[in-house]
Write a structure and sequence with these properties.
- This is Tenascin.
- It comes from Stichopus japonicus.
- It is a single chain.
- This protein has 2 helices and 10 strands.
- The chain has 167 residues and is mainly beta.
- Strands 3, 4, 5, 6 and 10 form a 5-stranded antiparallel sheet that branches.
- The termini are far apart.
- It binds calcium ion (CA).
- Calcium ion is lined by residues 103, 105, 107, 109-110.
C-alpha cells in the first residue's frame, strides 16, 4: 500500500481520480458527483487496524451525495450506523472538498496544507476522520480517527476503503 499517492495532489487530481485499484485509488470527485446525482446511493467505509482486539470496523451512511465542482464537491450524508458509538463523519457533513491548492474548509488555515494534513478531504476545522493521509504516519499526517469530544486519537489504521452502492 502506498498512501503517498494521496499527498500533495492538486484539486484537479482529486476531481479526475488517480491510483490503481490494487493499492491506492481515488475514483474522482467528478465521477462521485455524476454517479450520486443520478440516483440515491449509500456509503460504507471499511477500516482495518493493527492494534485493537477488533481489527476491523465500518461506518455506514444510508445516503451519500457529492455536489458539483461549482459547489466544491460538498458531501451530503444520511444517518449513521456502524462499529463506533461516535459518528466520525458527522463533523464532515456538508463540508466542501479541500486540497493543498484549494482551501474550502472552515479553519483559518488550510487544513489540507502539505505540512499539516497532506491529502484532500472534506475538512471542517479540521477533522474527526481523515482517510487520505500517509500510511503509518503519526498524527497529524497519518490516517487517523479523532474523537473530538474525548480527544481520543487512533492512528493505527492500516487500510481503508470507501464503497458506494445504489439504494
Ligand atoms: Ca481554511
Amino acid at each position: 500500500m502506498n498512501h503517498s499517492k494521496f499527498i500533495a495532489k492538486m484539486v484537479g487530481c482529486f476531481r479526475d481520480g488517480f491510483g490503481d485499484l490494487n493499492s491506492s485509488f481515488w475514483l474522482g470527485n467528478e465521477k462521485l458527483h455524476v454517479i450520486s446525482a443520478q440516483r440515491d446511493h449509500q456509503l460504507k467505509i471499511d477500516i482495518w487496524f493493527n492494534n485493537t482486539n477488533d481489527d476491523s470496523a465500518y461506518l455506514h451512511y444510508n445516503l451519500f451525495r457529492i455536489s458539483s465542482e461549482a459547489s466544491k464537491y460538498e458531501i451530503t450524508l444520511g444517518s449513521y450506523t456502524g462499529s463506533f458509538e461516535y459518528d466520525y463523519m458527522d463533523y464532515h457533513r456538508d463540508m466542501k472538498f479541500s486540497t493543498f491548492d484549494q482551501d474550502n474548509d472552515l479553519a483559518g488555515q488550510n487544513c489540507a496544507h502539505t505540512a499539516f494534513h497532506p491529502g484532500g478531504w472534506w475538512f471542517n476545522a479540521c477533522h474527526a476522520i481523515m482517510l487520505n493521509g500517509i500510511y503509518g504516519a503519526p498524527w497529524d499526517t497519518g490516517i487517523c480517527l479523532f474523537q473530538r469530544n474525548t480527544l481520543d486519537k487512533n492512528c493505527s489504521v492500516v487500510a481503508v476503503d470507501m464503497k458506494i452502492k445504489p439504494l
